[in-house]
Amino acid sequence: MKKINIVIIGAGLYVCGKGTRGFGTILPAIFESKRYNENIGAIHCISTSISSSNEFLDKSQKLKKKTGIDIEVNAYPKSKNAINFSYKDVLRDIAKPACAIVCVPDHLHHQVTKDCLESGLHSLVVKPLTPTFEEGEDLVKIAKMNNLYGAVEFHKRWDKSNLLLRDKFESGVLGDPVNCWVEYSQRKSIPTSSFKDWASETTILQYLGIHYIDIIRFVTHAIPKRVMAIGQKSEIVKFNIDTYDSIQCVIEWEMKNGINFTQTLLTSWIDPESSTSISDQKIKFIGTKGRYEADQKERGIRLNTDEDGVEHINPDFCIPYGTENNDIRWRGYGIDSIKTFLDDVFNLENKVISLNDLIGKRPNFQESLISTAIIEEAHKSLANNSAWQTISPDLIKKLKN
Length: 401
What we know:
This protein is α/β, with parallel strands linked by helices. The chain has helices at about 15, 25-35, 50-65, 85-95, 110-120, 135-145, 160-170, 190-195, 205-220, 335-350, 365-385, 395-400, and strands spanning about 5-10, 40-45, 75, 100, 120-125, 150-155, 175-185, 225-230, 245-255, 260-270, 280-285, 290-295, 300-305, 310, 320, 330, 390.
């Protein structure tokens, strides 16, 4: 059996909990994969500074102690004196890895992922695939040309709340779709602190709302027809960051049987720091025979401490749980998403499955072009006085293929 050596490009909040007491999601997920698959090999994490490298190594050592899992971990750059350091050098010089996990700012997704694919690596990209359809389509072509697997880390597809929605819809008990309403917001510190260096390169719809654009595609298999968006700028610009505080987006979808329905997304990232969770997320899905509602912030657990005040805990995303053996195991849909990718890569490398076996079962690059196309048209709407943007017939044909 082939060993699966893993490259991570990026060492931020989602990778290892940079700047927090936590450990992020990607690093714990790899440790959990190693727990049951001894063929998970070394981790090579590439960031932009020696301080990020050192924090990644420190988090890794703590995880080894907490989980009881031993895994080889490397971080680059290795010296603060590194001159003209480039992730491309690491991709060229390290022992042949099997896959890459790309967790860099949105506007860098295309170039970094392209370099990974051209280095022969199956690649998982944090959402979105790319900011534009043209860039995303280019990655689809490169992956196909190199016979590689490419996927987007749309972890909300593994959330049991959304799986239940899909199952109820597919069973027919909700009837035909009529409309869907989503509210998704985060604390103001996300754009002004955590992502302040690149928040102006994205929007809250692209960074966060895209999850529920993908979920509606996942649930209904519909194709978008047209898009409209309205946005407001007044608060975040005070921090010299040129991005929208809030975006409201309406998408008209078409089912395979010709039925149309709308999705409305209310997205923002100006929630107060006193909010009881980083993310506030709700969804309502209305059909001709029923409705499904889920408050994915209020999941039934509330914690109140002197140190952190009142918190709503999401037990389903990425949480460490103690075991009877006094070690720690990370569980949740954030973990499951990354573990599934690593399982798929392992099975591909060992000829257990083929790329065709994954079509229609995973958020691969081709599937993720749909959410990318919607985001691009929403941005055009924002730039055009919120005018409706029609998805072109040629583009729809590409999406269906």
